[in-house]
Amino acid sequence: MVTDKLRLDGKVALVTGGSQGLGRAMAVALAEAGADVALCARSRERLCAVADEIRALGRGALVLPADLSDVDAAVGVVDDVVRRLGRLDVLVTSAATQLRKPALEVTLEEWDRLVAVNLRSVYFMCQRAAQHMIAREDVPAGASRGKIINIASLTSVGAWPDVSVYATTKGGILQMTRAFALEWARYHICVNAIGPGTFHTELTDALYSDPERAQRIVSRIPLGRAGLPEDLAGAVVYLASPASDYVTGQVLWVDGGFMLMGAGL
Asked: Which of 23, 176, 195, 232 has the CB geometry, 3.0–4.6 Å to 17, for a possible disulfide?
């Protein structure tokens, strides 16, 4: 049955930024679909709370606190998952940090911090995950070796005031996803992205703390509301599952129809 192709039983997933917001929701969704889930973020306490949710579903959970601005630590997280759980089938790179500041005032230190977390760590974690997936000897010829799911943004394709550095990193995520998908298709590794619309999370709280600005944003969403983290559940399970084995290099927009109103933000 087609629903069987959406199951992730026996799979191992790693979700960065899995301690809260969109990352937490996607990690729980993967566990609900049958995967054991490794969680990475800075806060051990928050990670442990999400791990408890996953274990309550009858799935395994591994907590791996790390500062992903340190690329060696980021790559080490991928190695730890393979070493401790024996394999890595799905990587979801949800960790990100934000800066709201006019472009004329951005400092080099701020630029480096966002690029390190949002772009550099993603690149090299994807690279390391793909290396492990390619090296697997238990995958039949022609079968999928793994799924990599990056998190894009409306700012990957549009413009929004005061988030130039974040937008630069998310534009990079979009092109990185396409480049990896092309290069790694020969190994049967699918690389896609999810493009969330306007979601109310800790990362976007500055927007929603201004009622007037929040209303302007919501008024442009055809479905009439901001996204909830749980709205990403179907997208991440689909892209992680065998149901998407012939899908690569794509962005799945989960935006309530926002993109229908034009790319400019």
From this structure: 23
